[in-house]
Amino acid sequence: RPTMKSLRFISAEAFVSNAEFARKSLGGVAHNLFPLLFKASYLLEQGEVIHDLVENWPLVDFNMGKLLGTTVDYQEDLSRRTCSVCLESCLTGLRDYVLNHPSTYVKKLKVVDLTGIKDVEVQFCECKKTMGRWARTQLLSKLCLDLLVYLQQTQCNPAAFEISIDVLIDLFVTERNYELVTQALLKKCCCPLKIRCVAFRSDNLALQKFFYIIKLTDPSLLRKLEIVHNVRLEMEHLEILFNSIHFPLLMSLTLPARTFNVRRFTATDEQMLSNIGEKMSEMTQLTELNIPFSVLTGRIQKLLSPLKTPLKMLDVSNCLLNHADMAYLANSFHANHLEALDLSGHNIAELYPSTFFKLLSHSSSVLQSLTLEDCNIQDTHVNRLILALSPCQKLQEFKFLGNPLSSQGLKYLFTFLCELPMLKNVEFPVPKDCYPAGISYPIDDASLCRFDHQKYESVAEELNLILLQANREDVKASTPLFGSYDAAVQETNNELGAYLIKSFKETLERFTNSL
């Protein structure tokens, strides 16, 4: 539905729609109107006007999340529009703010917060060109270095060197932009634009380089740390990281697959796991922990029990948890606070149905997101699943891809899901009867797309009709075959693909040499 605009916002749109006129007239605009004009310019993708607004920003702070979020004059949230034209204009405007010599006002800007920008799958900007987190990291680092070179090589206003602006950003570093970002962080003390890393994501990066750059980010400010995919971090490296670096404000931690592997544990490893748990307990702000694809059989309690702050988000997908692990989770103080839980890859219905039931009952008052992909949930388990989900009245998202449910089982489950008042997003599997007879679960990637597409479309229509008849048009139901959209992976998939090919080639060469 179209969002209502105030007369002020309509006037702001009219003003910025003529870019040439707006740029000439900014000198006579009241300072308190700059935020209004910025949002109007962003909506209309007026890059030149955005640049000049930022270049002449008269206020103390510049917060992208607040400027583009819901406002009195225009309630639509534009922070999900990562429009390349707008964001590049914004960042180059920030660079030129330092170089500009205003005659009508004193420069006040102290803090620029870029962390409110949200990367999403569907973009509504007309240019359809996005600037993701990796590209924003790259551009800001380049602008900081270019600015330093310019200030050193030209006779600038001495006042430019006195400017100090903290730029809060979520950094995303891979092998391809590592050198550039490292140089920008090394020289930030000399640069008027000072990169302040609030969240850090590392992918496709050598372990030695990760350890070097993480120290440059000023870990005392980090709130979110994501070490994913092609960073070969193992438990001994994690212990070294936590022993050498303090993360007092860390709220969210994501670790790569196989960080923990209890299959090869020794007495030393047991002590190491205990030490890591103790170090995590010192992170008093930590409420989100993602440790997918680690082997933690029988060790979840040792890792999580030292924590003094209850977790609100926990991803232990494909961690080979046993009954003792599930029993600990169900009875721990974390259970009553879990807002997001991912137990994918565990046969919950067969191995520990009662403890799973207990876990959901304890978290039901707060649980908003539940992921149960590849959990071998069959038609015979649907009644028990419904019973477990019934108290979860705040559930907004339910993902259960990869489970061997029939069309009838899905229809029965969807009839119940209509009763969950807060539900907004459902990811359901291709029905088992759409696949050839004898298909085995979990389905491998090669067979994933080999189903009766016409029959699937027919079933999907029936499921959406169930939602429609229950007046639940607000619920989005879909089947993303290869998992949910990941903006970071999408942005860097070419680099990651090249890395995987290179690794495969090196493995083949080593194998050939050994022969």
TrEMBL record:
Residues spanning the signal sequence: none
One of the record's GO cellular component terms: cytoplasm
SUPFAM superfamilies, per the entry: RNI-like
Alphabetic keyword roster: Leucine-rich repeat, Repeat
Source species, domain of life: Eukaryota
UniProt key word Repeat: yes
Family: Belongs to the PRAME family. LRRC14 subfamily.
Protein name per its UniProtKB record: Leucine-rich repeat-containing protein 14B
Source species: Mesitornis unicolor (brown roatelo)
Lineage: Eukaryota, Metazoa, Chordata, Craniata, Vertebrata
